[in-house]
UniProtKB/TrEMBL annotation:
CDD domains: Glyco_tran_WbsX. Keywords: Plasmid. InterPro entries: RgpF, WbsX. This is Lipopolysaccharide biosynthesis protein-like protein. PANTHER family: GLYCOSYLTRANSFERASE (PTHR41244:SF1), RHAMNAN SYNTHESIS F (PTHR41244). It comes from the Bacteria. Pfam families: Glyco_tran_WbsX (PF14307), RgpF (PF05045).
Amino acid sequence: MLKFHRLRRFARILVLTGEERRYLRAIRKSGLFDRTYYRGAYPGLNPIYLKYPEKHYIAYGERLGYRPNPDFSPQAYLRYHPDVAEAGVPPFLHYVRVGHAEQRLTKELPEVVALPARGMPQVRFEHGRQTAPYAVAVHVYYPDLWPEFAARLRRLRIPFDLYVTLTYRGEETDALAEEIRADFPGAFVTPMPNRGRDILPFVTLLNAGAFDGYRAVCKFHTKKSPHRQDGDLWRKHLIEGILPETGLEEKLEAFVEAPEAGFWVADGQHYTGTQWWGSNVEATRHLLQRIEIPLDREALSFPAGSIYWVKPLVLGLLRSLQLRLEDFDLEEGQVDGTLAHAIERVLGYLTARAGQKVLQTSELRPAAAAAPAKPAFVSAFYLPQFHPVPENDAWWGKGFTEWRSVVKAPSMFEGHLQPMLPADLGFYDLRATEVMGEQAAMAREAGIDAFCVYHYWFDGRRILEAPIDRLMARPEIDFPFYLCWANESWRRNWDGLSGTVLLEQTYGAGFEEKLAADTAPYLRDPRYARPDGRRPRFVIYRPEDMPDPQASVARLREGWRRAGIGEVELGAVRFHVEGAHPVPEGLFDFWVEMPPHGLVKGPDYLFGGPDGNRMPAAMNPAFSGLIYDYAAVARRALSETYVRTLPKATIAGVMPGWDNTARRGAAGHVAYGANPATFNVWLAGALERRVPASYRRELFVNAWNEWAEKAVLEPSLTFGDLNLQVMRQHLGAAEPATHLAEPPAHGMRSH
């Protein structure tokens, strides 16, 4: 009899009535039923029902109070809209036919609770402190749920540090904080004001450096759904999805090792489609503009529910938005349209812009494909401009260095990331040679093998030579380098092509032998790079400017031989403007690709190009320069069509950004959308598609510290060390030795 009853129930969803079939067609046409969500939200359903989720909802689910998507509650819809109840129309059917267009309320309004006033805690975490591999951040709004969370945390068998924020409720919160500290020694616990829901507490910790150095961070909160019959079940499903009782270690390792993974959420928590916009479009747009990310309204995809694992790159991008308490709305029971709602959607755009995905639990798989081969050698252009010299004093004012231009960089459009200012190394002076040692240590950790240092030599006259000459006197400072002769005239407009000549590059008789003799002491230094293991390397920036490149190169090589250096591996930069004296094929051992030279074409321009103003942001009327799409340029750099235009022996190049408005003001050239997310995409593509065929499988980065051109890998106040993290992630340099070898008691350690 029981078996027959079950068969009848199964048959019920296969043989719908005529009215139910029309209901089904309306659901499918609307696109408002989320199959992934339904299956994830109600995993205990029979597999037959899960195969036909819409039919199950129509036959059984709606009457049971199940949700067709996370934001539609049948009970709440009927309660707030008695006309629907009186008409006897199924609530979701009414919504897809009428209510959606009318923007009717679809879920329970949260209870507005008056809580005691509380100021923001002043928190800061020591840089470089010892940490576990993982962090778990928990926000407690409902204190009665803490015992449930504490039990789950005790069962975790991964090494983690615990961070707990609590919405302040007075003495009750103070007592709970002490209980948590006693139960989990070493956990960081702090009360927070009732603002920004679970998002502001998380962002506060993020901005304070709490999550620096972790492989991944787990975030969850005391999600209650009192309006749902299955509220407790749903919360447990979301947390169980990312902290499963069995197999957590394997799934977490798969998540961390998957380069395409940015977020890990429970099944049903990856929302896609424009129906999830609500009233959050403009707030999302304004947030994304803070870091030059354009909004595509038709491509919404994000991790919902604020319960997830997240990787460092997306966390760093969120931090770069520089959100503060005053940005967040006061809590007044809003169901949509707050900054917290917008941030939820912003996270999806940050993930996509970085070339990553939101993965659900059932989508996690161990890494199958091998990672792209690492480059055999990685170089970065290095600018020694950062110290005063008499010439710059005369031309630009007493005490001038590159920093003066950097701090005065103007903003030319809404969200323009200027000025970009240094962070960890500060406004350094390269006469203090210790700075070069710090730079080299950072670069080495990021996978960079040597700096290609600009060498300013004007027929025997040197300028900006102090940093490298002082380095020669400090053999204990480990700074791997080689030289690039920057053989262009210095001009007042900074482009080397036009404007008043400040210091002219000449090529007098015998200049080659003098250059060889002057550079020989550097080439003999033990720190001077020999990428092929034998020959010291030397690069010429503008070979076509030499009156007779072939003869000059021959004399230069001979000059080094006579100086006792022997054979030199000689390269040249592939410049974007053809010089007066073409270089014969095979004259140089290699060429260096130097983005953006030669990469920007008509369709890439967003402003100042053939199609006029296509910028997704309001422009400063004074701007007369050029703006192009960084992501489009990156795609061209990876295309076979472009690669075929390069000499065969070319080192593939990438750039973290380009923006010379610091030097050229309103006439500057800007790569719009250059940030660590898009740099991550370009670098990953270069390693997969360019480096295997690159000269000696090498990679070149433009640049390490071109601050006035915003081609910078060094840490900035805007992005921290995210560019270096991107390099480290792909180039496989060792992570900082701050992780614990074994999980401590309760998975925590002291801060």
